[in-house]
Amino acid sequence: MSAKSKRDGTPRRHKFRRKQRLESAKSWLPTYEGNKRFQAYRKRYGVNWETAFTELEMLGVQIDPAYKEQVLRTEAREAEIRREKKLEKARQIETSMGFEQDDNFAMIIGYISGGAPYGVTWEEWNEIQDTE
């Protein structure tokens, strides 16, 4: 297998740990000319808002506390909406297909002789949903 075929297409900097990101960002920040520094940092290093704010603060970037609070509140609200939509979609499937669900299984197909359920786990379910 060649080295090229092993690549997964993810930029190397998205796999950086905090120490590596901070070192890389030290040279990137002075060259960034846009107005959306926090958004650009998130996209460049593949991190969430909270991590971007924390690391840019570590690098000495001034952040307006009101802006930070508003962005984090909005992100939390959007995450909750996504979670609710996912649960609603699962409930619709459960009612339309007649499958049971629990904390471990998105779709309980049946039970083994000992009484333990088997079926599609939430992890597998999320992978299926991501491919659609």
Task: Summarize the structure in words.
The chain is mainly alpha-helical and 132 residues long. The protein is built from six helices and two strands, in the order αααααββα. Strands 1-2 form a two-stranded antiparallel sheet. A hairpin with a 5-residue loop joins strand 1 and strand 2. Helix 3 crosses helix 4.
Mean pLDDT: 86
String of helices and strands: HHHHHEEH
Helix content: 55-70%
Q: What structural category do the secondary elements indicate? A: mainly alpha
Number of strands: 2
Distance between the termini: 30 Å
What fraction strand?
5-15%
Oligomer class: single chain
| Rg calculated over all Cα atoms | 21 Å
Largest sheet: 2 strands, antiparallel
Alpha plus pi helix count: 6
- Uncertain runs are none
Strand arrangement across the biggest beta sheet: 1-2
Summarize the structure.
The chain is mostly helical and 132 residues long. Helices cover 58% and strands 9% of the residues. It contains six helices and two strands; from the N terminus they run αααααββα.
Which key phrases capture this entry?
two-stranded antiparallel sheet, mainly alpha, 2 strands, elongated, 58% helix, 6 helices, 132 residues
